Amino acid sequence: TRKKLRLTKEQSALLEESFKQHSTLNPFHTLQKQKQALAERLNLRPRQVEVWFQNRRARTKLKQTEVDCEYLKKFCATLTDENRRLQKELEELKALKMGQASFYMHLPAATLTMCPACERIGAAPPPGVTPTSKATPLSFAMGPGPGSVTKPHFYSAFPNPTAC
After folding, report:
1. Cβ proximity of 145 and 131 under 8 Å
2. How would residue 47 be classed by pLDDT, with cut points 50, 70 and 90?
3. pTM of the prediction?
4. How far apart (Å, rounded) are the C-alpha atoms in residues 24 and 58?
5. Which structural domain, as residue segments, surrounds residue 27?
6. Please, are residues 45 and 25 in contact by the beta-carbon 8 Å criterion?
7. At 87, which helix (H) or strand (E)?
8. For the chain, which terminus, N or C, has the lower number of CB atoms within 10 Å?
9. Would you say residue 164 lies in a domain?
């Protein structure tokens, strides 16, 4: 097995400075010249310079991947919390809606109420009630016989008839 080559501080500093300027050795035709010049300056073989650059790029990429992973973990946690909050809000709204629906289901059946001051209903006459000749198309008189005009026989749910 080969002994691992340790770079001196000066060699490492020069390689780091070169890496900051150019993280890759330039295109192929200048690659050989640049690699050769660095190798001669550092008293290394060109292959060692090339491998150092590859390793440095790999370390940089790994570090960036770790940073990205931490960011994505935090973002995922934020989204998970937001999702839980929205799910809870949705369940509360559904419960509120169901509560209102059951409230209305427990109310007595709707009955027709009419203000005592009003004698017209905006609908077709019920069975047993005859329209009058004076009635507008959507109104009719209430009473036992044809043409009779009497007050409607509805329970007044209106405490103040002038409120209509």
Report:
1. no
2. very high
3. 0.49
4. 12
5. 9-105
6. no
7. helix 46-105
8. N
9. no
Are 50 and 80 part of one and the same domain? yes
Residues 57-106: pLDDT tens digits?
999 999 999 999 999 999 999 999 999 999 999 999 999 988 876 666 66
Q: Which residue has the higher pLDDT, 138 or 15?
A: 15
Question: Amino acid identity of 124?
Answer: A
The string of DSSP codes covering 89-116 is HHHHHHHHHHHHHHHHHTSPPP-----T
Residues 6+ apart with CB under 8 A from 141: 119, 129, 130, 131, 132, 134, 135, 147, 148, 149, 150
Name the DSSP class of 23: S
Taking the C-alpha atoms of residue 127 and residue 42, their distance in angstroms, rounded to an integer, is: 110
Q: How confident is the model at residue 21 (pLDDT cuts 50, 70, 90)?
A: confident
Q: Helix, strand, or coil here: 125?
A: coil
Cα separation, 78 vs 114, whole angstroms: 56
Q: What is the pLDDT of residues 110-163, one digit of tens each?
A: 555 666 566 554 444 555 555 554 444 444 444 455 554 555 444 445 555 555
Q: Same domain for 58 and 118?
A: no
Domains identified in the chain, total number? 2
Instruction: Examine the domain organization and report whether 133 and 89 are in the same domain.
Output: no
